[in-house]
Design goal:
globular; nine-stranded mixed sheet; 10 helices; single chain; alpha/beta
Length: about 325
Amino acid sequence: MGTVDTIIGNKNVQLFDFEPTTTDFLEDVAFGLSQPAKSLPSKYLYDFEGSRLFDEICRLPEYYPTRTEKAILEASARPVAEAAGEQTTIVELGSGSHHKISLLLDLLSNPAGYVAIDISREFMLSAVEQVKSKFPSLNVSAICADYTQLKELPNELSHSPASKLSFFPGSTIGNFTPQEAERFLKNWSGVLQSGDLFLCGVDLVKDVNVLESAYNDSQGTTAAFNINLLQRINRELGANFQLQQFKHRAIFNSELSRIEMHLVSLCDQDVSIGPSTHRFQFREGETIHTENSYKYTVDRFQEMVKRVGYSPLRLFTDPEDLFSIHLLRVN
């Protein structure tokens, strides 16, 4: 854990490395699989291979969120940049691909810097290299961390006089339960300062068939993304999951307004993790709940952010009201 100046390709980038340890991973997996309803934290879906597969998902015809959000950003980036003003530092949570952030950086007036935060270290550094290539004079920093656990930015960044625009794209806010989302947003308002801006992508409630198709694509990429979590546990924690004995399932839970991703056990089976300590039994049809994606109405989301210290400034949507982007100010 620490700070290093990293050469990525031939690009100088300041890296703050707070990557979760293998011990954290094992404890979270063991806890989740010990529950009556088995689950795994969705953040662990995003190792390098998981991040690569998610990047593929974002280009699938069924997966509307990415292309819709990008179209909204293309139309709204200028008013967002005008609201941000000069000498703003953009802090992107879950940096992923560089394409969305480039739309904002293209229009910002003399930005003070760009900070990428992601739990997938190598994938984030690859994306940061592309940003640095496109904007060579920009001060670029990368933080490998679980951003839900960050209480403050590193001193080198938090003491900067520049105002900040936090960018949270892709409807990642939907991966939290509403209660978790409120806690995260309240915590993040403490990381920022009064007057800083927060730009958040939020997926909207829509037809169930559209939703379920987006998470059960015909090419099986989302299934591979989900199964990759078990492959990661096998590789990093010494588990013996038989991948062919689990299948991907995504359903819309209308009562809770969320897509649920599960891995379904196809038979009765036992799984062990590590040399001796953890053994888990699965019944045929039993599932591991791996991810949620909550869908909001505009009113419901804006009521939530007002409760935890933000003022809605602008709302941007597409003509079909599939997706929304909210520009908020920290009170």
